[in-house]
Design brief:
alpha/beta, GTP Cyclohydrolase I, domain 2, 6 domains
Length: about 1050
């Protein structure tokens, strides 16, 4: 068929994709349409009826574009072809769609697809082409000397055919795999870092990258150099490559940079874990093997976690590391698998026990999907045991496909109710123990084998006295003994030789280890000499305590890395002899400690010290005056706070008998400073200090016991506990509705024997009013900022804060007022084009108040009694329509969400009841008992099915209690224009309250109403449509897209419904 009808560069506008804050984005679209048809008859008759009227096609394209909303360019293109072929008789059609504003550095993102009448519904064909048009990049390129210094502008155009597998079932799947924006960013980053001489080599490198890293089947690369020739617009090369031109991908995937032989250039993040054998040693061995081909830049803290998926197995230890490598992703994967084998991993069940497990989480910003390797790892966002350690080393790294930082993903996951079952503890392995930070304060007893220590010199400097003192410590249940062979008191002489220090320390360590009572007690060696540290560890010590923070001996960090034991790095200036002359800190003592010690810890990690092995000592009494010591005690929490460079560091502090205590108490005798020491220790425990180093261990043991009971809100158990509440219910028994937002495991009991015991389901019972009393934790960082601007009466432009559902927080009225004012004056609400006007908003609140008054007093009764209010005409029909749309999807989502929490006593499926049966009151005969568990807008009803002997849950939206105050305010906030004045909104609020009271709603004070209104208005103005639903969706991209479509549909239906009512 040789005849064609063309429509070239038709300019329309449409809502395609979303902007940074997740709002629909109206943007210009340029459409080319090519229709393959036979125009011979029209050529003979000159009659418009004998051809396809291109003006009608234009009208169809414009109507389609302006009325629809699309998540991606793929969805727009595919649905446009389907719309045209449905309206016109067409054998074959090509549509080329260009988005000139879709990418900041490109002229356009383009999708060109061709379909026939036989494959018009195909999501993808081999002829589909995606184009990144004129990507503008600045880089160093060229032969001349000046070109090797100054960056030049290049225009790069990519036309590519993606490789799409048969598993693609939806447009959403396709747009996830084929993402031109991400490819453009990667090519931009690649080219900016190159130093090629020729554009031919650059074009080849770009083609290789596309083919090996992005699942591209075939690519055409055109590189233009506009400034190369004075009297020409550009010099250019254009090449075409396909997958067959690269016979061995993992060999050809080499440096994109010049020169070709250079240091490793790729950054990868790797997860490590295990739960069989000596797990900590297995992880350390794996890292050592990993360092043979990769440079380890950072390691995370070590975490003990409860198992996911397969729960009947030991707890895991998990960590993460950041490495620099020249291996390509496939080589790296093979290398990691070999390491697992070398460490001792053997094949087992999926997600089952293993000696060690290594996974590639990220590789640069690569997005790769093959049969054997997917990057980024597909389940990062659902695994706290991955996100916690990853957050330690890549807090601000942006996930390439989810476009959220690791820190954001972790916060989202922590707010997921299912995370109540996932226990995570930061830990440090020492000897045959696992120390869990924040569960208790550990006690370090001081044993000075010296004649000249400041408070107990000469008391324990013989083997007999030292051994007796160590035994006394063990019997008093200290957690670790710190042995020192050289005094570091202020103004002490450093004349003790290394040999003398060894003679004091090594025999004592060996003697303790030879005693039955001394085999398991951890021992620390207090030294700044590398050789003393090394021989002490070989003799049986477990921790290196260096008062110089690794700076006293150039070999110390190497020894720390070699021995792979916990280490304590202390802050000090100068030497013990000179340190008290160096107490002036221009930027403050805490700031100095943070910056100096963070740099020192970074240095230790580069040399090979594992981050989870590092303890921080701020150095009380070392190069600090009296006030500076107290400033450190007061500021310990700040020093290791979330925003510090030393965030979450475990700390070891030694206040014992120090001179700043003596000067404050006017007590010159160090041995009389016990209670002063006790006071400082109590303050340090309140600040969450991890380890206290003391002389008076018996007295301080009591101080720690009581202070831990006060300041550490948990039990000092040495194992992870299952904190789930266990309740029992009889066959058909009523489950009370007042469990207050806690997670329960429901264990049914039965009157009759059964061949096979019925199984139970782990569920989350809703709070009485979720959302109404929740101040969302993620916006608390705006608090001080908002107060400050309130005082100045000047509110600057602020981006809408990203908000997630959180647990109930304490109400702060002044905070709510400030945030409400900030929100009303500056935060933009969604969908302004469809905004409700003021009069319609007044009508809506009156109607809702009328409806609420009808079901207010029956909302806590069993489900059967709540049906009455739903008989209200029109409104119940509308709710039913909304609910049915989402029911089946929500049912499947519910089953999938809970599948991870299943135990051996858990149902594999969830029995459900069609939502229409609720409206018709045609309940199944086996429904014996049910309970309405409070919660708007997502109530959960749980009951026991006495016939099939299993727990049944009905899960639906808006079907049992209807809209509450929360829902009204959310709707108003989403649909009202930000042009609505503050006075109008306040009037709406007053009308709403008066209508509620006027219709007889009781037991509802004005104060409670104001509190609910303020909370919910803040949520709505920050563009949260449904808190509970948002919580369930989490970070699942597909669910987010479907939820967005659902909101748009429900919004349009609701507006149409309201407009057709006579209020």
């Amino acid at each position: 068929m040789s005849d064609i009808i063309k429509i070239k560069q038709l300019n329309v506008k449409s809502t395609i994709g979303t902007e940074t804050w997740g709002k629909p984005k109206l943007q210009p679209v340029i459409v080319d349409v090519v229709v393959y048809t036979d125009i011979m008859k029209c050529g003979e008759t000159d009659n418009l009826e004998d051809t396809i009227d291109y003006s009608e096609i234009v009208k169809a394209v414009i109507k389609f574009s302006e009325e629809g909303t699309f998540d991606s360019i793929q969805e727009y293109s595919i649905k446009l072809v389907q719309a045209i072929t449905e309206k016109f008789t067409i054998e074959k059609i090509n549509v080329k769609v260009a988005l000139p504003r879709a990418h900041l550095h490109s002229s356009a993102i383009v999708c060109s697809i061709t379909r026939t009448k036989d494959n018009v519904n195909e999501l993808f064909t081999k002829d589909d082409v995606y184009i990144i048009d004129k990507l503008n990049v600045n880089t160093v390129i060229g032969f001349n000397d000046c070109e090797k210094v100054v960056k030049q502008a290049l225009d790069i155009t990519l036309s590519y055919h993606p490789k799409v597998d048969s598993e693609i079932k939806t447009v959403e799947d396709l747009s996830t795999i084929v993402n031109s924006k991400i490819l453009a960013e990667e090519v931009n980053d690649l080219v900016e870092r190159t130093r090629f001489i020729t554009i031919e080599a650059l074009a080849s490198s770009i083609a290789n990258c596309c083919l090996t890293s992005f699942g591209v089947e075939k690519v055409n690369v055109r590189v233009e150099k506009p400034n190369a020739i004075t009297f020409a617009s550009a010099s250019a090369v254009e090449i075409e490559r396909d997958i067959s031109s690269i016979p061995k991908l993992n060999k050809k995937y080499q440096s994109h940079f010049q020169p070709k032989k250079r240091a490793p250039t790729h950054v990868a993040y790797i997860a490590l874990g295990g739960n069989i054998g000596e797990v900590a040693k297995n992880i350390s061995k794996a890292l050592k093997l990993l360092s043979e081909k990769c440079k380890i830049l950072q390691t995370s803290y070590l975490y003990e976690t409860t198992p996911m998926y397969v729960v009947d197995q030991p707890n895991f230890l998990n960590a993460a590391c950041k490495v620099l490598t020249d291996l390509d992703p496939f080589e790296l994967l093979a290398f990691l698998k070999q390491i697992e084998k070398d460490v001792g991993r053997v094949p087992s069940i999926r997600n089952g026990p293993r000696a060690v497990d290594l996974d590639i989480l990220f590789y640069d910003k690569l997005i790769l999907k093959t049969e054997n390797l997917i990057i980024p790892h597909p389940r990062i966002s659902e695994r706290r045991f991955v996100l916690e350690p990853l957050n330690d080393i890549a807090k601000n790294f942006i996930h390439p496909t989810k476009q959220q930082t690791i820190n954001s993903l972790l916060k989202i996951l922590k707010h997921n109710p299912s995370e109540a079952y996932n226990k995570v503890r930061r830990v440090m392995p020492i000897r045959n123990q696992l120390w869990r930070w924040n569960e208790k304060t550990y006690l370090m007893g001081i044993l000075n084998a010296t004649p000249d220590s400041f408070s107990d010199g000469g008391k324990y400097n013989t083997l007999e006295t030292g051994l007796a003192h160590a035994k006394e410590m063990v019997e008093s249940q200290v957690d670790i003994i710190d042995i020192g062979g050289m005094s570091t008191r202020p103004f002490s002489d450093d004349g003790v030789t290394e040999e003398e220090e060894l003679n004091r320390v090594i025999p004592l360590i060996k003697a303790i280890r030879a005693e039955p009572w001394g085999k398991d007690i951890p021992i620390s060696v207090d030294t700044f000499r590398a050789e003393v540290a090394l021989q002490s560890i070989e003799a049986g010590a477990d921790l290196i305590n260096d008062v110089t923070g690794g700076e006293g001996d150039p070999r110390m960090f190497e020894v720390m890395a070699q021995t792979d034991v916990p280490v304590c790095l202390m802050h000090m200036r100068g030497t013990p002899k000179t340190m008290q002359l160096e107490c002036k800190y221009e930027n403050g003592v805490l700031n100095e400690i943070e910056q100096v010690m963070a740099d020192r810890i970074d240095k230790a990690q580069r040399i090979g010290v594992r981050f989870w092995n590092v303890l921080l000592d701020p150095g009380l009494g070392f190069s600090k005056d009296v006030e500076q010591n107290f400033e450190i005690v007061r500021g310990m929490e700040v020093l290791v706070s979330e925003h510090s460079r030393l965030a979450n560091m475990p700390t070891l502090v030694g206040p014992s008998r120090k001179s700043f205590i003596g000067k404050t108490l006017n007590q010159p005798d160090p041995q009389q400073r016990v209670w002063g020491t006790a006071a400082v220790c109590t303050a340090l425990i309140a600040a969450n200090t991890s380890i206290l180093r003391v002389h008076d261990f018996k007295e301080m043991k009591d101080i720690i016991t009581i202070s831990d009971k006060i300041y550490r809100n948990n039990n000092n158990n040495s194992i992870l506990k299952d904190d789930n509440k266990i309740i029992s219910i009889k066959d058909g028994e009523y489950i009370p509705p007042d469990f207050k937002s806690e997670v329960y495991r429901i264990i049914p009991t039965y009157e009759n024997d059964h061949d096979q015991l019925p199984k139970s389901l782990i569920i989350k019972l809703a709070t009485k009013n979720p959302g109404i009393n929740s101040l969302l934790q993620n916006i608390q960082g705006y608090y001080k900022e908002a107060q400050f601007y309130k005082q100045l009466e000047k509110i600057p432009e602020l981006k809408t804060p990203k908000i997630y559902y959180s647990s109930v927080a304490d109400s702060k009225n002044e905070f709510i007022i400030v945030m409400e004012d900030l929100a009303l004056r500056k935060l933009t609400v969604a969908n302004q084009d469809n905004a409700l006007n003021y009069d319609m908003a007044i009508s809506i609140v009156k109607y809702f108040a009328l409806l609420q008054s009808k079901f207010w007093n029956c909302r806590v009764n069993p489900l059967f009694k709540t049906i009455e209010w739903m008989k209200e005409p029109n409104f119940a029909i509308y709710l039913k329509d909304l609910t049915i749309q989402m029911f089946e999807e929500r049912k499947l989502s519910f089953i999938e969400r809970n599948r991870q929490r299943l135990t051996e006593k858990t149902v594999e499926t969830v029995k459900t009841i069609d939502i229409t049966q609720l409206y018709e009151k045609n309940f199944p005969s086996d429904l014996k008992h049910c309970t309405l568990v409070h919660g708007d807008p997502q109530p959960k009803n749980v009951f026991i099915d006495s016939i099939n002997h299993e727990i049944v849950m009905i899960d639906w939206q808006y079907s049992s209690v209807g809209y509450g105050i929360k829902d009204v305010v959310l709707l108003l906030g989403i649909w009202m224009s930000n042009k609505t004045t503050r006075e109008e909104i306040l009037k709406i609020k007053n009308v709403y309250y008066d209508e509620l009271i006027g219709h007889g709603v009781k037991d509802f004070s004005r104060e409670a109403f104001e509190q609910q209104w303020n909370h919910c208005l803040l949520l709505s103005l920050c563009n949260i449509a449904s808190v509970s639903e948002k919580e369930n969706i989490g970070d699942d991209i597909e669910k987010q897209k479907k939820y967005k479509a659902y909101l748009e549909l429900s919004e349009s239906r609701f507006i149409n419904f309201i407009q057709n009512q006579d209020f």
